[in-house]
C-alpha cells in the first residue's frame, strides 16, 4: 500500500466519522444554545439545567438513529473489505 492509497483510506474513514458524528454534535450544539438562551433570559445559572436535557436529547437521538448508524457502518465495512485486495497490492 502506497502513501496515496493510505491517504485515500484515511480520507474515507474520516468522512464516514464526520457523517456519523455530525447529527449528534449538531443536536447537542442546538440544545446547548437554546438552553443557554433560556438560562440567560431567566437568570437561572444551574449546571444541571444545561447538562441533563442535552444528555437526554443526545441519548434519544442515538437511540432513534441507531439503525441508520449501523446500516451506514455496515455498508462502509463491507465496502472496505470488498476492496481489501486493492490495499494489499494483489489486484
For this entry, give a set of tags:
3 helices, 91 residues, 89% helix, mainly alpha
Word description of this protein:
- The chain is mainly α.
- The protein has one domain (3-88).
- The chain is built from three helices and no strands.
- It has helices at 3-42, 47-82, 84-88.
- Helix 1 (3-42) packs antiparallel against helix 2.
- The longest helix has 40 residues, at 3-42.
- The model has no long low-confidence stretch (mean pLDDT 88).
Number of helices: 3
SSE string, helices as H and strands as E: HHH
Low-confidence stretches: none
Strand portion, in percent?
under 5%
On the 0 to 100 scale, the average pLDDT is 88
Strands, total number = 0
The portion of residues assigned to helices is: over 70%
What structural class results from the helix and strand content? mainly alpha
**CA(first)-CA(last) distance:** 12 Å
**How does the major sheet shape up?**
none
Number of separate domains: 1
Rg calculated over all Cα atoms: 20 Å
Amino acid at each position: 500500500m502506497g502513501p496515496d492509497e493510505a491517504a485515500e483510506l484515511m480520507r474515507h474513514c474520516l468522512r464516514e466519522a464526520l457523517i456519523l458524528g455530525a447529527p449528534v454534535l449538531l443536536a447537542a450544539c442546538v440544545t446547548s444554545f437554546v438552553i443557554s438562551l433560556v438560562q440567560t433570559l431567566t437568570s437561572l445559572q444551574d449546571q444541571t439545567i444545561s447538562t441533563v436535557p442535552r444528555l437526554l436529547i443526545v441519548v434519544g437521538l442515538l437511540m432513534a438513529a441507531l439503525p441508520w448508524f449501523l446500516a451506514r457502518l455496515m455498508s462502509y465495512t463491507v465496502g472496505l473489505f470488498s476492496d481489501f485486495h486493492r490495499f494489499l497490492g494483489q489486484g
